[in-house]
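Exercise 7. Given the encoded structure of a 271-residue chain, write a plausible sequence.
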């Protein structure tokens, strides 16, 4: 049986080493190509993925790896045939990275029967490593994540809102009558989860994320005391490889208020 606590430190060191090897602590615009789904990819994404696959295979030779830049058929087969499975986003926030914007991360999660056991998200520019173990806690640079005083009302909260793929009615409500005090959008779903977990922001809404976008971040937020669901009221990991919406908050009390506001009539996801 796999013991996640035994993998945490070597995983963190491996992720940091790969980031350093590819110079992620520096920001500079580079060439990017568009994929079939409209997202972008760079040579750095592919190089990072290959290096992370090698590191994970050395760390756990018997555990397969599912990564973002693999073909969908292979991803589906891996998810369907392995109890233990690494899920890797080699560079979350590729559009930012390619444009020279300082907001991107490496995200790695270990799943067992499609549920997260271990998660690590590394922000190389700020040298911040967020991590969590199921039923074991969440940490930022090896220190327990302990959010400062969290707001108790939506009007006191900061929202991380990705407006893409939301119904016009919901976008209008958020723009014209926002329930929060201020709104941000940074372009890295993995780091969004971490900033909600640490209480830097408090409310989260994203129209559509893939498994590798949320696998590690969901666990970090959950272990830090936050909550999340899809707009349809389902747990994220019930979706398999299907992209899903995300509604989340830093605390249970905030989540109840935020989810109620977001899912009010005329505020649903535009498929």
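Solution.
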């Amino acid at each position: 049986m796999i013991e996640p606590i035994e993998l945490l430190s070597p995983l963190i060191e491996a992720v940091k080493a790969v980031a350093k090897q590819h110079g992620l602590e520096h920001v500079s615009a580079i060439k990017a190509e568009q994929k079939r789904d409209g997202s972008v990819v760079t040579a750095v994404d592919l190089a990072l993925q290959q290096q992370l696959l090698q590191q994970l295979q050395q760390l756990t030779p018997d555990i397969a790896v599912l990564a973002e830049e693999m073909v969908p058929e292979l991803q589906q087969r891996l998810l369907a045939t392995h109890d233990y499975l690494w899920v890797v986003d080699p560079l979350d926030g590729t559009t930012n990275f390619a444009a020279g914007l300082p907001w991107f991360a490496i995200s790695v999660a270990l799943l067992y029967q499609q549920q997260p056991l271990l998660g690590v998200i590394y922000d190389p520019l700020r040298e911040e490593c967020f991590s969590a173990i199921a039923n074991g806690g969440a940490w930022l640079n090896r220190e327990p994540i302990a959010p400062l005083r969290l707001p108790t009302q939506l009007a006191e909260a900061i929202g991380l809102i990705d407006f893409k793929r939301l119904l016009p009615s919901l976008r209008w409500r958020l723009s014209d009558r926002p329930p929060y005090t201020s709104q941000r959008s940074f372009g890295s779903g993995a780091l969004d989860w971490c900033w909600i977990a640490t209480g830097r922001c408090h409310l989260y809404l994203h129209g559509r994320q893939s498994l590798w976008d949320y696998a590690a971040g969901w666990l970090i937020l959950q272990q830090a005391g936050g909550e999340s669901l899809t707009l349809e009221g389902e747990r994220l990991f019930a979706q398999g490889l299907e992209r899903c919406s995300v509604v989340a908050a830093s605390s249970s009390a905030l989540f109840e208020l935020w989810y109620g506001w977001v899912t009010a009539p005329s505020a649903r996801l535009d498929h």
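Remark. Residues 18 and 52 are 7 Å apart (CA to CA). Students should compare their own answers with the one above.
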